Amino acid sequence: MRKSRIAEKYVRVVQDMYERSRTVVRCAVGQTEEFNVEVGLHQGSALSPFLFAIVMDQLSEEVRQESLWTMMFADDIVICSESREQVEESLERWRFALERRGMKVSRSKTEYMCVNEREGSGTVRLQGEEVKKVQEFKYLGSTVQSNGECEKEVKKRVQAGWNGWRKVSGVLCDRKISARIKGKVYRTVVRAAMLYGLETVSLRKRQESELEVAELKMMRFSLGVTRLDRIRNEYIRGTAHVGHLGDKVRETRLRWFGHVQRRETTHNTLSLALNPIG
Predict the structure, then answer these.
(1) How much is the average pLDDT of 15-28?
(2) Family per UniProt (predicted)?
(3) Which residues pair with 132 in a beta bridge?
């Protein structure tokens, strides 16, 4: 905290909070006796995430690279490099920096993914131990695949939509509630879950169709109609005041593009554009 130039009075307050702190563990069978907390942060404290961010910022200052090559969110770190040797070198630097200050790199949770892999590219090792290789990984709620496709992400978005629909099915399937209100609830809860993160995903027509089919199925359930009723999709959308999902995807994509274009020319997000500056 002192290295981050936080006022000394706040440093002393935090020190007092952590001095001789004790806690208990509560579970289904009861509660343990009190014991001393000698390491770590207070679980459940609103201050803990802020303190952890300060610690990680100081620990990683000497090893982290600029954004896109090193991305951090809480204790999740993504390291990007152009070769296996560079990945191993970065991993070793992070391991040394963290362990020197009492933290550890979880071997069981560390994974690597290779894009455009060539034969004989070898494996990634950390202190002689082979790191688990995966074909996909999930980061901040989105699934990234080694082949650059997004089938898994689309399927998870459909599943997320159904999960959201089930949570509010009591409202969506209630015949006493108007179709307009149902449409508003659907757009707020279900569609928001389905479209999470898709503004940066390059969808094919087939994948967009998967999302459309799932959405129409949910809306038919909500309005109490089936295909046997021979009601057109446009009528269902108009009744619930819900537009085409594909149009909404393009709208969110354009909104994101606008955010990127309004950034300063030195912002890291522009590095992903087709014509980055610098």
Answers:
(1) 83
(2) Belongs to the beta type-B retroviral polymerase family. HERV class-II K(HML-2) pol subfamily.
(3) 111
